[in-house]
Design a protein that fits this description.
The chain is α+β, with helices and mostly antiparallel strands and 374 residues long. The chain has two domains: 3-165 and 270-331, Antithrombin, Chain I, domain 2, CATH 3.30.497; 172-268 and 334-367, Alpha-1-antitrypsin, domain 1. It has helices spanning 3-15, 28-40, 44-53, 63-78, 101-111, 123-136, 238-244, 247-256, 278-283; strands at residues 24-26, 84-94, 114-118, 154-165, 176-181, 187-204, 209-215, 220-227, 258-267, 269-276, 308-317, 321-331, 342-344, 349-355, 361-367. The strands form two sheets. Strands 1, 5, 6, 7, 8, 9, 13, 14 and 15 form a nine-stranded mixed β-sheet that branches. A six-stranded mixed β-sheet has the order 3-2-4-12-11-10, with helices on both faces. A hairpin with a 3-residue loop joins strand 11 and strand 12 (321-331). Helix 2 (28-40) runs antiparallel to helix 3 (44-53). The radius of gyration is 21 Å and the shape is globular. InterPro entries: Serpin_dom, Serpin_fam, Serpin_sf, Serpin_sf_1, Serpin_sf_2. It holds the Pfam family Serpin. Belongs to the serpin family.
Length: 374
Amino acid sequence: MNNDFAFHLYKKLVEMPDYQSKNIFFSPFSVSMALSELSLGAGGETRKQLLSGIGYNSSVFSTEEMHRMFHSLLEEIDQRTGVDIDVGSALYVSDKLKLLPEFLEKIKEFYHSDGFTVDFSVKETVDKINTYVKDKTHGKIDRAVDDLESDTLMFLLTYIFFQGKWDMSFDPSKTHQSTFHVDAETTVPVQMMYKYASLKVFYDDELLSKVLCLDYDDSFSMFLAVPDIHTFFEAKTIKDLEKAISRQHIEKWRTSVNKRKVSIYVPKLSLKTSYSLNDILKGLGMADMFTDNANFTGMSEENIFISKAMHKATLDIDEKGTTAAAVTTASFTPYSYNPLLFLHFDNPFMIFITDQKNGNILFFGKVVNPEEKQ
């Protein structure tokens, strides 16, 4: 998976007026997997746009190799122990649509996709899809879809569920009521977890931000980054951080965090997010698939296009660890000041759940207001 795509998607999301001052949380892994699967059945300009949008570089590897890489990644994730992680996809096809056998074979071979033939004109189909997603995300996402048009021909979904316990858990008796500063004028009450321990931290001089890395086991980590509001320079805000941050910063943090004795304050969180991806993906250059210019001749001889693409995600952080789930659906400093003695995540901060083995960003987000549940 291409982490540049994660940042392109994030920056498109925060440009949207509806999401500018909201919590953001999504799985770039889930979205890119759905788009990669769609590219299997796309042709012409639609295929070009999909591959370009997810950051495919033909000079590095072939499309066949790209699909094989996803396949290897899914196989490898399946073998992980120490955390509970489940990734997969499902394809629901109308009994009125004939899909090409080659497309069905490839989506099964590369993505282990489950396949179902359904009648989209009956409400039970929506219930079936929601039950499937609820089961795969261990109850975290119970409604992947509210309704579907009766003339829907195909419905593709990808899901990811992650549950990990901290290497070093927080002591619940140290959790206390505290204040989170949404902005200069607004505060909200939060349950703040506390720990004093030898932890992986880093001060990013370029971004003027404090970075904390909390491991789950030897496989996955969470990075939290908060702008340093006590700097001698002009205080940075979350907007400054999200504007400047890139894939290269995450790569730098992975090798730059060092253990040192610090006090950390991290809020307990329970967030739910939901995004319509149509305009966001169009903004990333993938427009044709949503119009009658769509070319999915590798899927079916019928003229089909995607009417709706959605993404939903959840995040829970407590003293024991983290639970995160997502589903993507497509219907068709040099001073004596020491900034790292205390890391207070009591101002808006950014959050990443990454795979230590390959650096993939599984989940990506920003917490602006921990009290905003949806």
